[in-house]
Specification:
Layout: E1 5-9, H1 15-24, E2 28-33, H2 39-44, H3 46-63, H4 79-103, E3 107-110, E4 112-117, E5 120-124, E6 131-134, E7 137-140, E8 144-146, E9 159-160, H5 162-165, E10 174-178, H6 182-193, E11 197-202, H7 213-225, E12 229-232, E13 235-242, E14 245-252, E15 255-261, E16 263-266, E17 270-272, E18 305-307, H8 318-332, E19 346-348, E20 353-358, H9 361-367, E21 371-377, H10 382-386, E22 393-399, E23 405-412, H11 415-428, H12 432-437, H13 447-456
Parallel strand pairs: 1-2, 1-7, 2-3, 7-18, 9-16, 10-11, 10-16, 11-12
Antiparallel strand pairs: 4-5, 5-6, 8-17, 13-14, 14-15, 19-20, 20-23, 21-22, 22-23
């Protein structure tokens, strides 16, 4: 296949990965980015948030180290230095992204991209002036932006989005979080560990809507332990400023309640970004949710225009976007490739951590599947005890007839790392017996995966299971 000229719009986890792979496959590729090399994830999302979460967790461990005989006094937080450290990590990664693209031969262009027609893309507002590109293919990887709710426009001063929450000038005395999904709880728990009083408003009946409920119950208990107030079926109506404080009006089950705080954080979700992209010039429209419809080769309704990442549909996760970017690049280069992933793991950096892959029990019931479950608590894990993190469990769901792994759900220490084994098992069509018969190193947390697999069959060694009659 002859070399194709390609423009990738957006340099986030979907776009830059697509650009690198296109260059590796010998294509003539230009990646256009208007703000952040590395996208939201590397700059103001998953990477910097995990850096601050790690700092909060370390402070909490230091506070409780006396149980190990380690006495620490006078522990203080230098917020300016913390933010600078976080930004140093971001700088290394974003610089690495730009460097990799250049090293592989991709061209970088800065500015706002507009699709003029199916073979023309124009850049405006770039430091090198306006440019027009004639291309064979276009990949749209423009990511997503925070959703604003009425009365709470994120100005990153009075009302933070997740972006503002990652560059604090000081730790709020009382942080009010609107939205009890994964972003709200990750950041809310982080700020609690760093010293804030935290209140979370959630419109649904519980935290983390849509997640595996047994795991969520552990998170909700942790919120209580941390003295984070979770108000469910509660809706923020507006706020007013009173001196240095804010008074938020919230509609609760009992009526209107006023909550005083000194910082508001709105985390009600994100929406795909397509404004000003020029989709109408090529006859493309987004769905009601803002997504571009694509086939399993990431093609839109216009055959030479592809989409990857958040704009290409749920789940809006960086790793899903990267995989889609690789698929699009391979297809453009003439490879016989398609998106056929059996599962996409989800990781949540709450305290404790939570992760899931595959079907939940509710989904199995909806599908009418005959299934079995097995569960192993971290309270029975020697390694978890040494880490002082014994809350939570590993739960495996399997087909009751074939023994194939259908879903794995975890809450507890380092489960965001442990979920990789589960994702591989589902992708390969492994059975629960395959996992149970695999020798896992001791003493490690992954042993809990093996024990949960054994628990499906009633043969777990390190917990008591009443024999079946």
């Amino acid at each position: 296949m002859s070399k194709r000229k390609v423009v990738v719009i957006g340099a986030g986890p979907a776009g830059y990965v697509c650009g690198i792979r296109l260059a590796q496959l010998g294509q003539d590729v230009t990646v256009i980015e208007k703000q952040y090399w590395g996208g939201t994830c590397l700059n103001v999302g998953c990477i910097p948030s995990k850096a601050l979460i790690a700092a909060g967790s370390l402070m909490e461990k230091i506070r409780h180290a006396d149980v190990m005989g380690i006495k620490a006094t006078g522990v203080e937080l230098d917020v300016t230095k913390l933010v600078a450290w976080k930004q140093g990590i971001v700088g290394k990664l974003t610089g690495g992204v730009a460097g990799l693209l250049k090293n592989y031969g991709a061209k970088l262009a800065e500015g706002t991209a507009t699709i003029v027609d199916k073979n023309t893309v124009k850049i405006t507002g770039g430091k090198d002036g306006d440019k027009t590109f004639k291309v064979d293919d276009i990949v749209i990887a423009t990511g997503s932006v925070p959703i604003n709710i009425p009365g709470f426009t994120c100005d990153e001063k009075d009302v933070w989005s997740s972006t503002g929450a990652l560059v604090p000038e000081k730790i709020p005395d009382h942080l009010l979080v609107i939205g009890g999904g994964y972003i709200g709880l990750e950041l809310g728990m982080m700020y609690s560990k760093l010293g804030s009083k935290v209140t979370v408003l959630e419109g649904t009946p519980g935290a983390l809507p849509g997640q595996e409920r047994d795991c969520v119950k552990v998170i909700e208990r942790s919120l209580k332990k941390m003295k984070i107030k979770l108000l469910t079926e509660t809706f923020a109506q507006g706020y007013e400023k009173k001196g240095a404080k804010f008074v938020v009006k919230a509609k609760t089950k009992k009526g209107i309640e006023e909550i005083e705080c000194d910082q508001i954080l709105s985390t009600v979700g994100r929406r795909p970004f397509s404004e000003g992209l020029g989709l109408e010039n090529v006859g493309l429209t987004v769905t009601k949710q803002g997504f571009l419809e694509v086939d399993n080769q990431m093609r839109t309704k216009v055959p030479n225009i592809y989409a990857a990442g958040d704009i290409a549909g749920q789940p809006m996760l960086a790793h899903k976007g990267s995989h889609e970017g690789l698929v699009a690049a391979a297809v453009i280069a003439g490879k016989n490739e398609s998106y056929d992933a059996r599962c996409v793991p989800a990781v949540i950096f709450t305290s404790p951590e939570m992760s899931s892959v595959g079907l939940t029990e509710d989904q199995c019931k909806e599908k009418g599947l005959n299934y079995k479950t097995g569960q192993f608590p971290f309270a029975a894990s020697g390694r978890a005890m040494t880490l002082q993190e014994t809350d939570g469990f590993v739960k495996i769901i399997s087909d009751a007839v074939t023994d194939e792994v259908l879903g794995v759900h975890m809450v507890g220490p380092e489960v965001t790392e442990l979920i990789a084994e589960a994702a591989l098992a589902i992708e390969m069509g492994a059975t629960v017996e395959d996992i149970a018969r695999t020798i896992h190193a001791h003493p490690t947390l992954p042993e809990s995966m093996m024990e949960a697999a054994e628990a499906v069959h009633g043969t777990a060694v390190h917990i008591y299971q009443k024999p079946k009659k």
